[in-house]
C-alpha cells in the first residue's frame, strides 16, 4: 500500500483525479470502478474540470458502480443510479450506456449479483477501483465480518451505516436496510485500488485499515494484500496513523517518474 497524506480534502480529490487522468491517457478505454458517498465527490469535481478544459477525454471509458440500495426507486435522488448520473456520468459526459449500477430493484437479487459479476468480467475487469471507507471500516457496503472472498450480493446494512447515511434522506427511517454490493473478492480483482478519506471521523477506520491486522472486522484492511493499492487521505483522516511522518517523508521523496 502507498499512503499519501495531503493538507485538505480538495487536494486529495485533485491528486486522485490526476492519477485517473494519467490512466485514461495511457488507456483510453479504461474501466473505472465508481464509489458513492461524500468521500469521492472531490475526485469527480476535479475530473469534470479536466473534461471542461479539454485535458481529459472519457469517450471510451466504461464504469461500474460499487453498490446500490435495495428497493429504492431508480428515480429517487439518493438511489446510487441517480447519484452516479448526477455526480459522474453527466458532468464528465460519459456515455450512459457504458456506466452500470447493480440492479437493486431486480426481483431476483442473487441472479442480479451474478449478472453484475458477468458484466464486469465481460468488460475485461476493472482497471482502477475508487473506494471510500466507512467509519466502521466498510468498503462498498461490505460491513464488518464480510467474507474476503465475497462477490456481488445482497447485504444487510448495520445501524451505524444507516445512521451515517441518514443525512442524505429526509428521515432516518427512509434509509434502506439492504443493498446490492460488489464483494471484497470482486473489489480485490481490480488491477488497481484508490481509496480516499477525509475528516477526523474516518481517522480510526483509516488507521485500522492501514496499520491494523487484516481482519473481517475491518473489511478495508484486506487492501493490505493488494499489489497496487493507494490510500489518499487528508490530515484529519490521517490523525490516527502511527507512521504518519514516515508516509509524508516517503511521498515527499518519491522519484519524479513515480509521481502521479
UniProtKB/TrEMBL annotation:
Q: Which residues form a coiled coil?
A: none
Catalyzes what?
alpha-D-glucosamine 6-phosphate + H2O = beta-D-fructose 6-phosphate + NH4(+)
Q: Which GO terms describe its biological process?
A: carbohydrate metabolic process; glucosamine catabolic process; N-acetylglucosamine catabolic process; N-acetylneuraminate catabolic process
Q: Where is the active site?
A: 67 (proton acceptor), 136 (for ring-opening step), 138 (proton acceptor), 143 (for ring-opening step)
Keyword tags: Allosteric enzyme, Carbohydrate metabolism, Hydrolase
GO annotations of cellular component type:
cytoplasm
User: What pathway or pathways are given for this protein in its record?
Assistant: Amino-sugar metabolism; N-acetylneuraminate degradation; D-fructose 6-phosphate from N-acetylneuraminate: step 5/5
At what residues does the UniProt record annotate the site feature described as Part of the allosteric site? Answer: 146, 153, 155-156
**InterPro entries annotated for this entry?**
Glc/Gal-6P_isomerase, Glucosamine6P_isomerase, Glucosamine6P_isomerase_CS, NagB/RpiA_transferase-like
Q: What is its EC number?
A: 3.5.99.6
Query: Which of the seven top EC classes does this enzyme belong to?
Result: hydrolase
Documented activity regulation:
Allosterically activated by N-acetylglucosamine 6-phosphate (GlcNAc6P).
Show the Pfam families listed in the entry.
Answer: Glucosamine_iso
Q: For this protein, what is any one GO molecular function term? A: identical protein binding
Record-annotated Glucosamine/galactosamine-6-phosphate isomerase domain positions:
9-230
Q: What is the role of this chain? A: Catalyzes the reversible isomerization-deamination of glucosamine 6-phosphate (GlcN6P) to form fructose 6-phosphate (Fru6P) and ammonium ion.
Stored PANTHER family: GLUCOSAMINE-6-PHOSPHATE ISOMERASE
**Which HAMAP family does UniProt cross-reference here?**
GlcN6P_deamin
- Name the family: Belongs to the glucosamine/galactosamine-6-phosphate isomerase family. NagB subfamily.
Protein name stated in the entry: Glucosamine-6-phosphate deaminase
Instruction: Give the gene that encodes this protein.
Output: nagB
Amino acid at each position: 500500500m502507498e499512503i499519501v497524506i495531503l493538507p485538505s480534502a480538495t487536494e486529495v480529490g485533485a491528486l486522485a483525479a490526476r492519477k485517473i487522468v494519467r490512466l485514461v491517457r495511457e488507456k483510453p478505454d479504461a474501466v473505472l470502478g465508481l464509489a458513492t458517498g461524500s468521500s469521492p465527490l472531490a475526485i469527480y469535481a476535479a475530473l469534470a474540470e479536466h473534461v471542461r478544459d479539454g485535458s481529459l477525454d472519457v469517450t471510451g471509458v466504461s464504469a461500474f458502480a460499487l453498490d446500490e440500495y435495495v428497493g429504492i426507486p431508480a428515480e429517487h435522488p439518493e438511489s446510487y443510479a441517480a447519484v452516479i448520473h448526477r455526480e459522474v456520468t453527466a458532468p464528465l459526459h460519459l456515455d450512459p450506456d457504458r456506466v452500470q449500477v447493480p440492479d437493486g430493484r431486480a426481483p431476483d437479487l442473487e441472479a442480479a449479483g451474478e449478472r453484475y459479476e458477468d458484466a464486469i468480467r465481460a468488460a475485461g475487469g476493472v482497471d482502477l477501483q475508487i473506494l471510500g471507507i466507512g467509519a466502521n471500516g466498510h468498503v462498498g457496503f461490505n460491513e464488518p465480518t464480510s467474507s474476503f472472498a465475497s462477490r456481488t450480493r445482497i447485504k444487510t446494512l448495520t445501524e451505524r451505516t444507516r445512521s451515517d447515511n441518514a443525512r442524505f434522506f429526509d428521515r432516518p427511517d427512509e434509509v434502506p436496510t439492504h443493498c446490492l454490493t460488489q464483494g471484497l473478492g470482486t473489489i480485490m480483482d481490480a488491477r488497481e485500488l484508490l481509496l480516499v478519506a477525509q475528516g477526523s471521523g474516518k481517522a480510526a477506520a483509516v488507521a485500522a485499515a492501514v496499520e491494523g491486522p487484516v481482519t473481517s472486522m475491518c473489511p478495508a484492511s484486506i487492501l493490505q494484500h493488494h499489489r497496487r493499492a493507494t490510500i489518499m487521505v487528508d490530515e484529519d483522516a490521517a490523525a490516527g496513523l502511527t507512521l504518519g511522518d514516515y508516509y509524508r517523508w516517503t511521498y515527499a521523496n518519491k522519484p519524479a517518474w513515480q509521481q502521479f
